[in-house]
Amino acid sequence: xxxxxxxxxxxxxxxxxxxxxxxxxxxxxxxxxxxxxxxxxxxxxxxxxxxxxxxxxxxxxxxxxxxxxxxxxxxxxxxx
Length: 80
Description:
Elements: E1 7-10, H1 12-22, H2 26-34, E2 38-41, E3 46-52, E4 57-65, E5 70-79
Parallel strand pairs: 1-5
Antiparallel strand pairs: 2-3, 3-4, 4-5
């Protein structure tokens, strides 16, 4: 998914839980969305991005706002 020029805005939940656990920053989240092996559209503006990691996989749930060029990351999850 091409998100060049989009501002990444994580929710408070993402910052306090998943970003700490994954030891990541906003640039890492952006890279994960760009290099996702699968992206599902699950609503009008809502997406799920799946990425591979050394220990398993991660799912990032986000809303893409094309008008304001912003991606708001709602939630994350891990799998093995």
